Amino acid sequence: ETGIDAWLRYAPLTGSSVVHSALPNNVVVLNSSQGSPVYTAGQELHNGIKSIFDKSTRVCYSKETKSALVVGTVAEYEKVYGALQNVPELAPDGFWLDTTGFNIQIVGQDERGALYGAFEYLSMLAQGNFTKVAYATNPAGNIRWVNQWDNMDGSIERGYGGASIFFANGTVVSDLTRAAQYARLLASVRINAVVINNVNANSTTLSAENIQGVSRIADVMRPYGVQVGLSLDFASPTEGVQNPVVHNLTTYDPLDESVVQWWTNITDNIYSIIPDFAGYLVKADSEGQAGPLVYNRTLAQGANLFAKTLEPYGGTLMYRAFVYNLLNESNWTEDRAKAAVDFFQPLDGQFMDNTVIQIKYGPIDFQVREPTSPLFASLRETNAAIELEVAQEYLGQQCHLVYLPPLWKTVLDFDLQVDNESSVVRNIISGQRFNRPLGGSAAVVNTMLTNNVRLGSNLAMSNLYAYGRLAWDATQEPEPVLQDWIRLTFGLHPRILSTITQMSMESWPAYLNYSGNLGIQTLTDILYTHFGPNPASQELNGYGQWTRADSLSVGMDRTCSNGTCYSGQYPPKVYEMYESIETTPDDLILWFHHVNWTHVLHSGKTVIQHFYDSHYSGAATAQTFVTQLASLSGLIDSERYNEMMYRQLYQAGHSIVWRDSVNDYYYNMTLIPDDHGRVGHHPWRIEAEAMALDGYRISGVALNETASNKS
Ligand code: BDP
């Protein structure tokens, strides 16, 4: 198997003949127009049941007297069958699934809901779950988006498995088969929109030719209820966009009338071609991107420029909070972690209602552990969504198994205690806590073409699956969600279930242990690749020097009493917890405090010994992934097994590189010996310097990058 079908394999179920005969022979689809999500739902039900049970159902588009699987919207259902009884209230995209009656009812509040219900029912069947159920489910937030960072030339920023499925050579590719398959996967986990191009956007996306191309993408995604959105380059009006609806300007000042007209024309043009266009995503004034600050306009003025053009069409503007400009922190009182609140809090209430501020889960950038972004507590009159990253940029880039939901849950379940009232992040982004009309989640996914696998690795697909599940309902626990994915992806064998559960649930703690524990951030190369150990690069980083490590001490003082006062951005109770070393949890101690290496943690260990031990234990856990996976040999098809084993072997080795590189680096810096005598002594290792090699070329590596004795 190539993995192309991911969790939608609908593998044959053996020993299910009883159920097979109990399933209705008819699928009644209440919408016969091809391309509508309800029509798609009918096809999925027919194909899924055929594939799982080898049973052919008859698909019909009108009422049946025999028992049937009925799928449609509430309105469609009631027109044909009369009022639905005892169905709880459904929100947009919500659905009702009832398998207890004469007919099996799969009824969506809207078309999308009906399709989601069909996928839900098939997911049950594919997992051999034949319990009788009758329930309604509604989404926690209306924004359940994914972001692709695809470039127009077909490359993908922070993409780790090949080329774009959308773009090549500056235009939209002609074969959109993969885009349709991607939409199907997304719909099955209830994702409702994709932003298809990089947040570091290229204005050529807005050319007449490319908007036509985007409309072809929208066409192949529409049958799955997935809308398409675009990232914008703020400076586009000055960049010679080839589209007859606009001409080039000399300014992109958001308050300039000609600029307003320019964007109005572009938006009108897009909606005339793609009437269900989702909206825009804007990264402005960040990492070299143009923005309103260039003209001394506020970020809200910049955002409202786009929001106004989208408003007549019901489009949404996602405006990113990832804005910072604090370079050269030579006095060490500046702190990039403070930037988002500094920029956005004063603007609360100034954004239009169709605007959502898209906030990375932590205040820096997708690190292996970060405290919850305090911006979630600071926007009461502005819509907010959380930004997660499925792509695993700092988290092993899919060469390491890291099941992410346990990390995400540290933020989604965090109580910010605004006004001393329960203010859990998942209830803020759902709009519930501050009574906001829009909110939810976005995840950077960066799905691509290589190896027929949608992400770089088969095991990494659990993160995409779980992202969708949590975007719908963030109260769910990571483990049962994972287990649904395992059964759908690899079948029902109990050993597969227990083994992949164990590996996945241990994976984030393991990676955390060897890549950046105690809240020190991920000690990867921070300057370029974001992969592999390079603690030295953290000290060169002009934005933060986040580790602030020297021979005596480590960590960044972010308290108000002595440091950057980042802690002061939290509501009082949370602030008090982080302000004091005594009440700061060990796992964020180095994020908030600068302490001696010999500081004793709540655990009773010193900081340095904790470093040494956790790097050893994290790498040791990664070794077990190889043996755990090996125990599944013969139970999983060889193609996927081999691909997974290849990566686990790599991770096992690379985790040791991580361990020794980080430990040796701090041992050399502090000269504090490891209680267990391991660090700095690697008698079993064959150093590169000791080898006789030929046919190689010398290239420079950064200090410690090789974990070599001589570095
Ligand atoms: C960082 C990535 C960079 C992105 C940026 C962003 O390294 O490639 O452009 O985030 O989110 O993590 O805009």
Automatic annotation (TrEMBL):
Residues 128-447 form the Glycosyl hydrolase family 67 catalytic domain. Residues 456-678 form the Glycosyl hydrolase family 67 C-terminal domain. It is an enzyme of class 3 (hydrolase). It catalyses: an alpha-D-glucuronoside + H2O = D-glucuronate + an alcohol. Keywords: Carbohydrate metabolism, Glycosidase, Hydrolase, Polysaccharide degradation, Signal, Xylan degradation. Its EC number is 3.2.1.139. Residues 6-121 form the Alpha glucuronidase N-terminal domain. Belongs to the glycosyl hydrolase 67 family. This is Alpha-glucuronidase. The gene is aguA.
